[in-house]
Structures are given as structure tokens and as C-alpha cells.
Specification:
This protein has 388 residues and is mostly helical. Helices cover 67% and strands 0% of the residues. It is globular and about 75 Å long.
């Protein structure tokens, strides 16, 4: 084999491990989407800044020192990235549910277009989540949250507080920052699993990608627990709860009428599900979403949304629950479930060759078939779709 052929074969092998070509194409496709996200972030920043300047910001009631908006501009930019990241996470979950479930019969809303939007908004969401944490890190460096006064100590302490789960140990952030970082670090493998499907197989990445909804739940939890704009009881906090209703309804619709026939739950008839584990998990998932919708409805109607009382004379709010060990235990359970999913959906090893057959024409190598990116756009995505 020539040297060029060897290099081509190596490139094809690397492509099978991770679809770098597909990722680069999606990053290019995400440029307009990321540009809109940056514009939205700047508008949110301007809105937050203006509310500080005119004295209507709820954040300054929680932390009065932040009334000096020019000095603490990095904190306000951190908040702006957090809100735009939550907005983009909401949008990408909607696209994923539309792709994997029933969607309106509009001609311009094709499955391929929705799937492309889902991938690009997912990448943008990862970028916004990183910038949310990075701006908090920059603010920590500036305000010297580390015990050391040296530059290295300031940077190291700020990095640990901002990027090491469980390190931050002050107030509500002890729980909320841990939850936010777990959402970020879970989003990376679960969101990028699509580009490993050449190695894992479509069945595994689809099964893993469904757990991305956990990332969104953790993100909303982090916001309601630590977002100073929704710190107190009020209409804006209730609005954040209410906006989860359409998403929960869309998720229930996707579970009741999935696009892939193999995911449909049949309790009677020739194709009914008789295996205990799939039957139990699918029923439990649908019942959990129904319970979530009822819970959201109760929060909206009652107005009891877990916010603090803005009255300074009111009794102090209880400490945030759960404790860190409960969250770590939940992460352990999720990890065990993911390991079980990987074990159950791993592709079967290839059958050993039986030797040459007379008249058999050898198959072309992976380089002749084209890269994983070329195959995935045409074949695999049409066969499997996107699950959320």
C-alpha cells in the first residue's frame, strides 16, 4: 500500500473513533446561532445593568454591594450568560423533542432541518454554559476569593470555586454551584455522544443522549436555587416555573407517540411489549412526566414556588436541601444507570473471517467508503433520528 493510502486509512480510522468532520461542519453551522446567542446575552446584560442603575434589581436586595454595577460588571455578565444559556438549553430540548416525536406538518419544518437546529443549538448551549462559569471565575479572581494573596493562589482558588464540583463551600452556592457544574460536565459527554456514534453504534448514543434531559433539569434547579433574579417569591420566579409546562407537555407527547416505532408502548395486540424491564421503565417514564406536569400546575396555581420572602422582618429561609452527599449519591446512581445502558447497548463484536471465498471481490476499505461525516449525514441520521 502506498504512503498516501496508509495515511488515508489512518484518517478513516480516526474518523470512526470521533466524527471530527461532522463536528467541524456543525460548528460552522452554529455560527449564526451563536451570534444570535451573543446578541441575546448582551441584551440581557444591558437589562440587568439598567435595573441595577435604576434601583429595581432584585439581586441588589440579596447582595447590596453589587449596586456598583461598573465595578461588578463581570458578575452581571456571568448572570447574562446564565440566562441566555438556560434559554438556549430550552430551545435545543424543544428541537430534540420535535425531531424524535410528532411535529407540526409544516413543509418548511423538515426532520433534517430540525435535527440540524438541534445540533447547532446544543453546541451553542455548551459554549454559553462554559462562559457562565468562566465569568464567575474571572469575578472570583478579581475579588480574590482565595485565601492566598499571590496571583497563583488567586487564580487557583478561583478556578477551584468555579470549576471543581463541591469545592465552593459558602451559603447556598455550596449546593447550587455543585448542581450547575454537574449539569455542565454531564452535558459534554451526553451532548457530544452524537459524534462518537461511529464507534459506539447508533443504538448506544441514542440511549445515552436521552439522559440529556437530566442536564436541563439540573440547570433549571441551579437557576431557581441560586439565581438572584428569582431569589424571592414573585411573578418572574413563577414565570420560570410556568415555562416548564410546555416542555413537559412536549416530552409527554414524545413519549406517547415517538417517531421510532420500536419505542412505542403497546400494551395489547400482536406487537405488545412483554419484557418486564422495558415495560416497567417506559410506564415509569410516562407516569413521572404526568406527575411533573401536575406538580408544575400546583406550583403555578398556588404560587408556592420555593422562593424566599422579601420581607426583611420575615423568618429566615430554611437551609437549601438536599445536602451535598445526597447529590453525590444521585450522581452515583445516574452513573451506574449510564454504565448499564452502555453495557446493554454496546455493539456486538464482528464475526471472525471464514477465509477467502472463490469469486469474492474484496470490499473497499473505510477510506473508499468515505468519512464518517459523509455517511452519517445521509444514512445513519435518516435511519435513527435524534432522541432527547
Amino acid at each position: 500500500m502506498t504512503r498516501a493510502g496508509v495515511e488515508e486509512k489512518r484518517r478513516a480510522a480516526r474518523q470512526r473513533r470521533f466524527d471530527w468532520g461532522g463536528l467541524r461542519a456543525d460548528l460552522r453551522g452554529a455560527i449564526p446561532d451563536a451570534s444570535m446567542a451573543l446578541v441575546a446575552t448582551l441584551l440581557i446584560f444591558w437589562w440587568l445593568y439598567a435595573r441595577v442603575e435604576n434601583g429595581s434589581s432584585a439581586t441588589t436586595q440579596v447582595m447590596p454591594m453589587l449596586t456598583d454595577a461598573p465595578r461588578y460588571w463581570m458578575y452581571w455578565m456571568c448572570q447574562a450568560f446564565g440566562w441566555s444559556g438556560l434559554l438556549w438549553a430550552y430551545v435545543t430540548i424543544v428541537f430534540g423533542l420535535l425531531r424524535s416525536g410528532p411535529r407540526p406538518g409544516w413543509g418548511w419544518l423538515s426532520g433534517a432541518r430540525v435535527e440540524k437546529w438541534h445540533r447547532t443549538t446544543s453546541l451553542t448551549t455548551l459554549g454559553l454554559m462554559f462562559m457562565h462559569a468562566f465569568m464567575l471565575f474571572a469575578e472570583f479572581v478579581r475579588t480574590n476569593h482565595s485565601d492566598s494573596s499571590s496571583w497563583g493562589g488567586r487564580v487557583g482558588g478561583a478556578f477551584a470555586d468555579s470549576f471543581v464540583p463541591g469545592w465552593y463551600d459558602s451559603g447556598t452556592g455550596r449546593i447550587a454551584i455543585l448542581i450547575g457544574l454537574l449539569a455542565f460536565y454531564l452535558a459534554i459527554p451526553l451532548g457530544l455522544a452524537f459524534y462518537l456514534r461511529q464507534t459506539t453504534g447508533s443504538r448506544m448514543w441514542l440511549a445515552l443522549h436521552r439522559f440529556i434531559i437530566v442536564v436541563y433539569v439540573l440547570s433549571v434547579w441551579h437557576t431557581l436555587l441560586y439565581g438572584t433574579n428569582v431569589w424571592y417569591d414573585g411573578s418572574f420566579r413563577t414565570l420560570v416555573w410556568a415555562l416548564q409546562m410546555p416542555l413537559a407537555g412536549l416530552l409527554l407527547t414524545r413519549l406517547l407517540a415517538p417517531a421510532r416505532p420500536s419505542e412505542r408502548l403497546r400494551l395489547r395486540g400482536a406487537g405488545r411489549e412483554s419484557r418486564p424491564l422495558p415495560l416497567t421503565t417506559r410506564l415509569a417514564g410516562r407516569l413521572a412526566v404526568v406527575a411533573t406536569i401536575l406538580g408544575l400546575l400546583a406550583v403555578i396555581v398556588s404560587g408556592t414556588d420555593g422562593g424566599r420572602d422579601p420581607d426583611p422582618n420575615a423568618a429566615p429561609s430554611p437551609e437549601p436541601w438536599p445536602e451535598q452527599w445526597v447529590i453525590w449519591a444521585g450522581l452515583l446512581v445516574l452513573t451506574l444507570v449510564l454504565v448499564a445502558v452502555v453495557h446493554r447497548t454496546r455493539p456486538a463484536p464482528p464475526a471472525p473471517p471464514r477465509g477467502p471465498v472463490a469469486g469474492h471481490v474484496p470490499a473497499r476499505d473505510a477510506g473508499d467508503r468515505g468519512t464518517g461525516a459523509q455517511r452519517s449525514r445521509g444514512q445513519e441520521e435518516q435511519e435513527e433520528g435524534v432522541a432527547s
